[in-house]
């Protein structure tokens, strides 16, 4: 296609083509984070085939693009560099020439206007009012960081003045108060919008980490996570009080939140040489817990604990108390890459050995006909992790890698003395 270098149609600014508006929107999206905004070189945009699929193959798409370039060059909004020997037909790059008019054309406030509005908010009562005492230093650090970044025209996580005002509201909330209110109820109280706080917290955390090295969601207790640990026990859980209180479990399964696990003073087992069986999957946990309650679980187990996958701090805390009480620790998980990696994580978490239960080559071979194909990436991870696995399961790891198959824990039946 041959055409003059530029200067074809010159429509008025209010009547840009759809393609021209798309080009300007690409510049507008990139401008706030560019060197151009900070007084550096002009913003350059190339690779337009990614924005306009078919630019290199479809005649109509290319004609519309070149017409749009003509429009924008004629309006003084952009300049164009043509590919060598392809002037007028092949664009190498476009350069932004008039940033202020760019934002008027796309109907957005300019980054300079946004910056001035945000600085005004930082100087307003929203950010100068005293914060909760527990957050005063964090608020001051964030305010200083934001002011400096905006003065230097550096990008900040907060998008505009309205978001800055919303962020300021968080510093008026006390940690003690925040922990007692559901997240969405607090959001309604602060913003009259039940979802606003959840959307705002990632931005707030990025800001407070940069400025003060802490996440405000953690400082306020708004990083809502409620890990739980389940245990079936023949024995007693002892809790600290003015005098110790004992829960008699009698083999029944109980599920404890992390805060309750932290309050366990001791665990008392019924037998003199107890063992605890950690179980990876929920259904297997409950069936084995029922066996424990009725006396049908293989000895010497006096407790069954539910791991639920990769262990979290509450679960580690529960097993730690079992180990402190003198119990030996065993783990029964999937005979697959993640099952072995979970056992390795548990083994590293304790001074005492965590022994595998029914995680051996003979069990694997017996149930291999019912196995499945793990994702290749998980098999590769297992291969790379073999040397860090407990020695007792390395033969099983080799067997899994040789067959390229895993065996789920749920297909393995447990009898009175182990595998049934």
Protein topology:
Elements: H1 18-30, E1 44-45, H2 59-74, E2 78-82, E3 91-96, H3 99-106, H4 111-122, H5 125-128, H6 136-151, H7 161-170, H8 175-178, H9 183-191, H10 196-212, H11 216-219, E4 228-233, E5 235-239, E6 245-248, E7 253-257, H12 258-262, E8 264-269, E9 275-279, H13 282-294, E10 301-306, H14 313-324, E11 328-332, H15 337-349, E12 354-356, H16 361-367, H17 376-385, H18 394-403, E13 414-415, E14 418-419
Parallel strand pairs: 9-10, 9-11, 11-12
Antiparallel strand pairs: 1-3, 2-3, 4-7, 4-10, 5-6, 5-8, 13-14
Helix pairs in contact: 1-2, 1-3, 4-6, 4-7, 6-10, 15-17
Notes on the structure:
The protein is of the alpha+beta class and 420 residues long. The chain is built from 18 helices and 14 strands. The strands form 4 sheets. It has a 6-stranded mixed beta sheet, sandwiched between helices. Helix 4 packs parallel to helix 7 (161-170) and helix 15 packs parallel to helix 17 (376-385). The protein is flat, with a radius of gyration of 32 Å. The N and C termini lie far apart (77 Å).
Low-confidence stretches: 1-13
Largest sheet, described in full? 6 strands, mixed
Strand order of the largest sheet: 7-4-10-9-11-12
Mean pLDDT: 89
Radius of gyration: 32 Å
Which features characterize this protein?
44% helix; 3-stranded antiparallel β-sheet; 6-stranded mixed β-sheet; single chain; 420 residues; alpha+beta; flat; disordered N terminus; 14 strands
Question: What is the structure about, briefly put?
Answer:
The protein has 420 residues and is an alpha+beta fold.
């Amino acid at each position: 296609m041959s055409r003059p270098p530029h200067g074809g149609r010159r429509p008025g600014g209010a009547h840009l083509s759809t393609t021209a508006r798309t080009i300007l929107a690409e510049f507008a999206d990139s401008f706030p984070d560019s060197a151009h905004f900070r007084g550096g070189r002009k913003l350059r945009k190339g690779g337009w085939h990614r924005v306009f699929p078919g630019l290199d193959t479809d005649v109509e798409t290319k004609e519309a693009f070149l017409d749009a370039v003509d429009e924008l060059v004629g309006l003084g909004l952009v300049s164009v560099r043509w590919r060598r020997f392809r002037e007028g037909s092949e664009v190498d790059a476009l350069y932004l020439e008039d940033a202020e008019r760019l934002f008027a054309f796309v109907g957005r406030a300019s980054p300079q206007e946004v910056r001035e509005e945000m600085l005004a908010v930082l100087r307003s009562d929203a950010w100068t009012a005293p914060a909760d005492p527990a957050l005063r230093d964090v608020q001051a650090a964030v305010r200083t960081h934001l002011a400096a970044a905006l003065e230097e025209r550096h990008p900040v996580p907060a998008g505009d003045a309205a978001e800055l005002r919303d962020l300021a509201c968080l510093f008026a909330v006390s940690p003690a108060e925040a922990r007692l209110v559901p997240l969405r109820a607090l959001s309604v109280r602060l913003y009259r919008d039940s979802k606003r706080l959840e959307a705002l917290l990632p931005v707030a955390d990025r800001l407070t980490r940069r400025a003060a090295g802490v996440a405000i969601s953690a400082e306020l207790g708004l990083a809502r996570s409620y890990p739980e640990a389940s245990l079936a026990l023949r024995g007693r859980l002892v809790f600290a009080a003015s005098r110790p209180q004992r829960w008699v479990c009698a083999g029944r399964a109980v599920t404890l939140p992390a805060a309750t696990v932290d309050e366990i003073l001791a665990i008392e087992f019924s037998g003199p040489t107890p063992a605890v069986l950690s179980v990876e999957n929920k259904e297997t946990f409950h069936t084995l817990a029922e066996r424990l309650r009725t006396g049908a679980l293989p000895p010497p187990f006096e407790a069954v604990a539910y791991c639920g996958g990769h262990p979290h701090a509450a679960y580690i805390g529960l097993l730690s108390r079992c180990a402190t009480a003198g119990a030996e620790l065993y783990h029964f998980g999937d005979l697959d890459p993640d099952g072995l990696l979970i056992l390795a994580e548990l083994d590293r978490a304790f001074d005492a050995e965590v022994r595998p239960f029914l995680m051996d080559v003979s069990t694997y071979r017996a149930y291999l006909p019912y196995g499945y194909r793990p994702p290749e990436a998980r098999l590769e991870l297992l291969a790379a992790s073999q040397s860090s696995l407990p020695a007792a399961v390395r033969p099983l790891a080799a067997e899994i890698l040789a067959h390229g198959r895993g065996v789920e824990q749920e297909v393995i039946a447990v009898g009175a003395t182990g595998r049934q």
